[in-house]
Input
Amino acid sequence: MVISRTSQTEICGLEFVILTSTSQSDQRPCPLCGALERRLVFQRDGWHVVKCSACNMVFIGDQPLAYGTQAAEHDWADDYEKEVSRRKKDRPLLMFFSRLTRPFRTDATRRQFSHAIHWKREGKLLDLGCGDGRFLAMAARQFDVTGVELSARAAQAAKERVPQAPILVSPVTDAAVPADSFDIVTQFGYLEHEWQPRVGLGAAFCALKSGGVVVIKTTNYASWNRIVMGENWCGIHIPSHCNYFTPATLSRMLRDAGFDPQPRPLLDRLPTSDTLWMAARKPQPQTGVRSGAIF
Ligand SMILES: [Zn+2]
Output
């Protein structure tokens, strides 16, 4: 197995490896284990979605986009609209039925809020990848909130929506947030966009107080719908989504980042959902005792 570990960064006294390929192939090493061996899942528009031969992580295996390029040329709001247009053109019937069922689906922001308050009901909340601030606005009713967002346009919308909250315009991996300060960190629809997801989890670990919880929502590559739809699955956005987690790969990355993944309620464990919800606790360093689930 070829492991590429070419540089390290330190967050809160913990070392995080920046995985950068040392080969001439311009391949992105596996963001979970660092291996370079992989098999092609599919390719689109010059991008290669691959599965790591060592740990089964699925990800875009090409060289990462710089954060500046990601913000300037792949703003999520623009890329999302492009993908929706592509799907309307390629699969109009499927999109028609999807629109019909929209009123019956749970409001996404309320669902995020409900997951957050399962773990903490008050205190300081940090939303990493806060987008346009819809969740922050709801969370601000119960928490003292702070947001971090890479897209200047989305961050501006968040500032207008939640004027009392500090909103930092920055990559999450480089955000100047105080260490050991937050009771809860949320990452809703962020990890799938982050080319250094392990470092992104490190930022959450650093910001949390001991015993604090990170609550994550990302796409569920293990869903039955993905297995049926293949590369036409609704969770595929190229190159905006560069990581495709399963419960197994996300749990492993959380443990690697120092977290203690929490048991998941039955409803969240069903493979019928395209969304993967997971919470993990920052352990108390002096005891090392694993915390029980609140669910
Ligand atoms: Zn791997």
